[in-house]
Design goal:
Length: 462
Amino acid sequence: MTGRRRPSVPCPARAAWREWPLGIILLASAALLWWIYRSFAHTDRTLADRPQQLVLLFAGFLVFLIPTLSIWRARSAASRRWTLLIILAGLLFRVAVAPARGPASSDMYRYLWEGRVVRAGMNPYAHSPRSPELAPLHDWVWGLVQHKSVPAAYPPVAQYVFALAGLLPLNPVIELKLVLALFDALTVLLLADLIRRLGRPAAWVICYAWHPLAVCEVVGRGHLDSVGIFFLVLSVRLLLVRSGPGRVAAGASLALSVLSKGYALVAVPFLALAAKPHRRHFLLALLLVGFLAYVPFLSAGTDLFRGLTLYAQKWTGNSSVFALVDLAFSRLTLHHDAIARVVCGIALAAWLAWLIFTRPRSYNTRDAIRLSLQALMGFFLLTPAVYPWYLAWTLPFLCLQRSLAWLVLTGTIFGFYAHDFAGHHNEIWWVTLGEYGVPLLIWLAASVRRRDPGAATEAACE
């Protein structure tokens, strides 16, 4: 007599035992990253400390890479306890670096100055720091502001955030860093929820929570990008709410992201396409919030975008495709810089148009995330100025859409700081080649391995 075979039931103890190697990697990496980030937070902005910063940034990225790749390649999602460890450790890293006085970026003093101008009821778009109308506001912060002849270039939402610093009896640098760190910490929590709702392993939040770009550059140096990144992630999360009010909130949040720092602008068409139904609600909220944010500053008139225009026309540095185009035209004309900007602008428009017109018919939020990442990739490869913290805008999308080549670029980009040793206006060519060449080789290897006619597109976002 034969009986029925009892179905096999997974043993929780055995499953937990299989996860312990990953747990050991996470615990060891978290402890080492804590030490690295704390050490970074106690360096200074002087050139003498730059070698130490470079070593710490590259070391932090290599340590971060080990658990991140382990989680990406795990056959099963990490358990809830390890995901919780990733989130808590990410928050603790920010606690370790945010209150430290150094190494704040020079941009911080521009933030503080423009915030003071706004609190005084003046218009930072109408008056540059050198304007005589602002002379009564001069203090030690004004003395550290760079490019004093250039009026405000940061959009209105950024100005409102800058104005928050100075409301509490704290060191203004630390106060503003804490405000910016709060936005970044909220991004970590929001990303974990978004990843889970989109059916990805929540542990993938490690790609943002532990990355030295987010911890050291955005939080440690005190860069504004944390505000725009938060509202961009919030907009994607709100897109999952398919009601009319949900679309209004998603459009408003995307407007706040664009008006914090404009990089989210290239993602607008792809998120708008995913806002069906009620796409009109999304677009109306986007435009209305954008207009209302500028209303208090309209007195600047034609100078409203003068600072941004000067940045777009003059700033260059650490670029990739733009540098090659500029080099090619430098042999033909003295106006090579302007021509290179036009050529790269046309190339970016063509890239965005190609992504839009080749999108899948069954377009959804996951497609919007993939195409938004590709749009940001194209923008940062074609833009004339690429500073390390800019690439932090791509990290939330890497938590949802893996790309090894781009992940490596977010680490090699720290080579930017090696250019300081060549002088303020010079770059070391072989450093730039290493920054972009190593990720390019990884991307090419992935394309060849896939042996697919569309590999050049697919390998960028696997």
